[in-house]
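Supplementary Note 3. Input sequence used for the single-chain structure prediction.
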Amino acid sequence: MTFDVVERALSETLRRRIQPRQRDEALYQRALEAGLSELQARVLAGRLSGYAGELEPLTTPSLRHLEHPEKLADARCSAERIARAVTEGEHIGILTDYDVDGITSHVVILRALNEVFGVPSHKLHSLIGHRINDGYGISLPLVERTLALSPRPSLVITADCGSSDEPRIARLREAGIDVIVTDHHALPLEGPPASAYATVNPTRDDCGFPDTTIAGCMVAWLTMSLTRAVLIELGVLSPSTPKLSPWLSYVALGTVADCVSLGGSAINRAVVTQGLTLINRMEAACWRAMAERLGADSVPFDAETLAFQMGPRINARSRLDDPYAALHFMLAADETSARTHLEVLDQDNQSRKAIESDMADTARTLAMDDLAAGEQVLVIFLEEGHAGVQGIVASRLVQAFGRPAFVLTPAAATGMLTGSGRSIEGLHLRDALQRAHDLTPEALPRFGGHRGAAGIGLPIEQLEAFQNALRQAVNEQLGDRELYPCVFTDGELLAQQLSLSTLEELERLAPYGREFDAPLFEGEFRVENLRVVGADGSHLMLELSNGGVSTRAIWFRALTPGEAPAFGLGARLHCAYKLSRNRWKGRESLQLMIEHAEAL
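The predicted structure, written as discrete structure tokens, is reproduced below.
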């Protein structure tokens, strides 16, 4: 059966549907009683269903809502061990993941040790794995590299990794190296790695920290903040030693880019809000260089700038090549150096986009058989695929088909596959992998992640067994739920609400991100004008009217390059759209950003 025939047969199942979000009526009333506007109450009630906590920490984010780091299990003993390494002049290794969360964690730990605690640079060793050559976490090649250092570190601090790496940690311990794990990924069933000196992870069963959704960079920041307190207690540092709060700028970037919850987490909302305030002071060269690259109209940065502009550029380097350029960019002392490193990141990001496009096209074609069979989860093996963009392509499949998806490619080790998965609302992906492992342990020897995203490693001959086990695990969670691509909206706006004042009203609920999506509305409009724009002719600039109000709109990637619009002047469209601020030569105006539209 050809792709076209299958696609036609599945057209109704795969058609994106515009649907209003389900609203928690009790929460809606609570929000109104708390003094929020009707529109703000609507937005909250559509995102925080079942939330019973106080609203003020979410609607007015503040650092006063941070919890004390000593509530993290093992945080005190970790801080004391790091303090001992500082006072006794030990060599310290900093081992982090290669993505934005890992890189920002690395910056926080490195700058705290060097600039605040006074550890000289020659006693600090940056250890970041190469995505293709080393793989995720505390990989064996990274262990070998650590053991080859001379002098060898006596302490290794991890961030954003390590919870599932007991065999490699045991190897380091046997060599006389203490390993402190700081991480936020779900722990294996057997618990924290037994060979670690300490494991600071809010997902531990015995951890009293009230928020398990914080990113790895926040765990690292809390651990280093407590280390500062311990060094002051010991008299090593003065009580007037600066706090680490200026580096919440890095924590904000890592938190947004790692897609942890910005919904019911007062801590995540507070650190992103404060971090953006710090970033927009433009005191660090990396922020100034990025603002220069994006243009004057990009400032001030918001959470979407971090998610869709900075995050992808930093991730691209680690996905395709060596991640140290991203670290050097973040640490750049001047704008010339920052620009040089950013140019490398930008070039890699362009390469990543081209690779991603080709892989996504192939993956969508391969997914048709699973879709025709009614499978609830897509497992796609791309024999010629690049491991660095698996997760992005998996996200594209989720968006296109409304199903959780895994994309696998050959690993560096012969006969092995690596893969990345992305989930949908209502499916805990890491729990599904645990269930698949329990069903067929040999088919999934290595996995990790959280609710929304996960990574795996398996022998190529076990691919079919893994598919079957995962399908069973997903089916157990989702039951007979109907799956299809969907665009969830916050309902309709009145014509008079299409204004900058409405946008400002919504911005007062920022930051927006995972589990607290930016407001999206729906409505019917008449096309008064349209033209194809963009270097490849894939975007549409529109003039839309509703109730006598005419508004400018932009629809990115509305067309396949070279394709003509399917509608013309006078057409009626049912649109899902966001309100956005268009800045041009110092002037601001409202612009609609079309996410999806259907001709009526």
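The radius of gyration is 24 Å. The chain has 20 helices and 17 strands.
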